[in-house]
Amino acid sequence: MSNVKSVLLVGVGGQGIILASKILSAGLIEAGHDVKMSEVHGMAQRGGSVTTQVRYGDKVYSPIIGKGSADVMVAFEEVEALRWLDYLKPEGSLVVNSHKIPSASVISGAEVYPEGVIEKLKGAVKNITVIDASKEAMELGNIKAQNIVMLGGLIKAMGIEGIDWNKMVEESVKPRFIELNVNAINKGMEMVEADLVK
Predict the structure, then answer these.
(1) Which of 101, 119, 130, 190 has its CA 20 to 30 A from that of 83?
(2) Residue 15 covered by a domain
(3) How far is Cα 14 from Cα 166, in angstroms, rounded to an integer?
(4) Closest to 6 (Cα-Cα) out of 56, 45, 67
(5) Predicted confidence band of residue 128 (pLDDT cuts 50, 70, 90)
(6) What's the superkingdom here (predicted)?
(7) What distance in Å separates the CA atoms of residue 176 and residue 75, rounded to the nearest whole number?
């Protein structure tokens, strides 16, 4: 029986998903797990789809998460959650940021941003937590910290808050952003019910 857990992080370029994934991976390594991470960037650095895949356990052979095999998905943007939903296990957990970022095709008028995305997600996923990470980050002083708010929510959902995440943040961000990001990760943990991921 494999004890490997698969975590999918999805969003758009410029949201800080890679940094969040690196902090997550560093914490899991610190806790003694074997960790593999892969990242995929969309066509544009900002506004293109970005996903990272983190798998951890006693022994992980590949970072790749197939369809229907993610234990947990954290979506930094609503539509990206819909786009990647078929990668989540039927009993998997979803933490989603109630934040809309129109894609280039929406901005150009070629597509329309879908309505009722959160409602669709709630209809499709039993274990779902919705966070307004953008609002929380703004209240902390910088919307760019929404990625770390989301990371905090993911950590709580996974039941791995016992790791020294403040230390992981301190080692990963510039000194002037440490306080903001420590506050953000703790805020995210406060916003999610404990251990959604079984």
Answers:
(1) 190
(2) yes
(3) 23
(4) 56
(5) very high
(6) Bacteria
(7) 27
Residue pLDDT, tens place only, 27-54: 999 999 999 999 876 654 556 788 999 9
Token pair for 108: 């150009």
Total count of domains within the chain: 1
β-partners of residue 5 are: 56
Give one word for 16, left, alpha or beta, with left for phi > 0 and alpha for psi -120 to 50. left
Residue 169 lies in a domain: yes
For residue 143, the enclosing domain spans 5-106+115-190
Q: How far is 106 from 118, CA to CA, in rounded Å?
A: 18
Look at residue 58 and tell me if it is in a domain.
yes
Tokens coding 138:
């703004």
pLDDT in tens, 149-181: 999 999 998 889 999 999 999 999 999 999 999
